[in-house]
Amino acid sequence: xxxxxxxxxxxxxxxxxxxxxxxxEPVSSLSHERLTSFARRLELSDELVDRRLRFAADGYTxxxxxxxxxxxxxxLCWRPGQESTIHGHAGSLNDIRVHRGALTSRLFAPAxxxxxxxxxxxxxAEEVLAAGAxxxxxxxxxxxxxxxxxxxxxxxxxxxxxxMELTVxxxxxxxxxxxxxxxxxxxxxx
Length: 190
Fold this sequence. Notes:
There is one protein chain. By secondary structure, this protein is α+β, with helices and mostly antiparallel strands. It has one domain (15-189): Jelly Rolls (Sandwich), CATH 2.60.120. The protein has four helices and eleven strands, in the order αααβββββββββββα. It has helices at residues 15-22, 32-41, 46-50, 186-189, and strands at 61-67, 72-78, 87-88, 93-100, 103-110, 121-129, 134-137, 142-146, 153-160, 165-168, 177-180. Strands 1-2-9-4-7 form a five-stranded antiparallel sheet, covered by helices on one side. Strands 3-10-11 form a three-stranded antiparallel sheet, with no helix packed on it. A three-stranded antiparallel sheet has the order 6-5-8, with no helix packed on it. A hairpin with a 4-residue loop joins strand 1 and strand 2. The longest helix has 10 residues, at 32-41. The protein is globular and about 45 Å long. 31% of the residues are buried. Residues 1-7 have low confidence and may be disordered.
């Protein structure tokens, strides 16, 4: 995980420039390092992010900003105490920017004796990231995200290719689930 905020990585990118850069090579050959470089240079206005703020009491929300065949850009909103499952991204690359608040990021790996792609998993690292920090996940990574503070959390996520489902793991069993994803619609949280 890297806390670089985009300085020294090249010129900032508008959303339009980001879309063009993301389409220059097949997403299947895109490296995590390249996605991270683009995502850290992406300039998003507070207004663009704020227009996608939708919170819900029963879980974090996934609010779409932009989607192409190569990637999707979302704003996720987390109330205090909300967390994701322990999951992998079923082959998608990921970059996460903490927009507001503090994100707890936990990394996992197959437990001793378990094979890759199976459970149980065990926690290998945990860190708290402040606003402006980045983290992410390579195609085969496993993590859990959480808001462990008393304040709302807003994160900006890039997935390449778009994230259609999660691979959900457990720390207790070898059971692995594939769960389809959907965006949060304003009507769902009104």
